[in-house]
Amino acid sequence: MNIAAVDIQNYLPHRAPLLMVDLILEIESDFVETIFLIKDDNIFVDKGTFIEAGLIENTAQTCSSIVGKKYFFEDDGTENENVNVLGFISAIKNLKIHELPKVGDTIITKANLVSKFVGEDYTLCTMSCESLSDDKKLLECEINLFIQKTISV
Asked: Which InterPro entries does this chain map to (predicted)?
């Protein structure tokens, strides 16, 4: 299923001020591309620069959208109501930060699924990622994520 220009909030539980992706530009079962405009009131902006933690969080949220899709939507595209998920980065490998973007820059982040293990109510995956701004490479890494469906009370 190839979806274009979707609000990331449909795939993740994150909300402002911790939402570091604006839109999903493209999403498939093994690839996702997102866009994010850095604004001056972002919590990861320091003296006009988007810091390393912000780039990493942007990458993690981009990657999580592929896995989150499984929990928030059925195979037929029907949205699941009242879904809660817990997710975290279990490892970051080969992290290279080439440049830090500035306020007003737009980040395009791309992630490819390398491997995935799906349990009954959790998913472990490894993603290969890169972030760009105006065709300049900002970040590249491999990220491992753990996402688990939690019980609503």
From this structure: ApeP-like_dehydratase, HotDog_dom_sf
